[in-house]
Amino acid sequence: MNTNIGLIGKKLGNSQIFLEDGNVARVTVIQVGPCLVLGKRTAEKDGYTALILGFGKKRSKLVNKPLAGFYAKNKQEPAEVIREFRLSEAEVGKFEVGQQLKPSDCFGVGQKVDVSGISRGRGFSGVVRRWNMPGAGSISHGAHEYKRHVGSIGCNMTPGRTLRNKKLPGQYGNERVTVLNLEVAKVIDDPAIILLKGAVPGARNGVVSVRIAVMGSARAA
Asked: Would residue 220 count as lying in a domain?
């Protein structure tokens, strides 16, 4: 589990920038603010420690009563997106409820981050597109309407059924995907934007979570 600090963001799209050495870097632009600390989870009360972060704003009439009471208790405005980031107790203690986090508080240029988001939904797809299968059989010798089929999916006698987790046609995309170890190319506090080298899952304006890489560098100074 990734227990490093991170921020909630919105994927704005793709672009490119020129690096100091003159090379061009293809980047994904992510808006990671404003992110507010809405609350904390403690080991004594909840059994684990975490920060509750909010991103964006939502109209009060669209908030249900439990959340409305939570916001009223902390004297805060409703957030569009709420996420929990599990952190160590020492890390949680560095932040205060109501504090607004800037990109530079968490990330630095050259740092590795992990990005999680919902991938683009591609509907019901066959095995060639969904699993990159070559297709079953030949398209010659009189065979027709069979070149993109899945082929055999089990044996007749043993086990006499199709095993679970068999790669078959079905829903493709629209699932949570995490891309590891993307490099931060640029950090801009105003207007709270970071540029990441490479691609990020999801469509434009999709909500993503950006955290310091679980296998990457330490937190920026």
From this structure: no
Q: Residue 209 is encoded by which pair of tokens?
A: 């979570």
**Could you list the residue range(s) of the whole structural domain that residue 148 is in?**
124-172
Matching residue, tokens 């095993």: 163
Closest by CA position to 110, among listed 1, 216, 200: 216
Which residue pairs from 50-53 have beta carbons closer than 8 angstroms and sit at least 24 positions apart in sequence? 50/84, 50/85, 50/86, 50/87, 50/92, 51/5, 51/84, 51/85, 51/87, 51/92, 51/95, 52/82, 52/83, 52/84, 53/7, 53/8, 53/82, 53/83, 53/84, 53/85, 53/101
CATH number of residue 106's parent domain = 3.30.160.810
Could you give the number of structural domains in the chain? 2
Report if residue 56 sits inside a domain.
Answer: yes
Specify whether 203 is located in the same domain as 148. Answer: no
Which amino acid appears at position 107 of this protein? F
Distance CA 82, CA 71 (A): 12
Q: Is residue 179 part of a domain?
A: no
- pTM above threshold 0.85: no
Segment 53-104, tens digit of pLDDT: 999 888 989 999 999 998 888 888 899 999 999 999 998 988 998 889 999 9
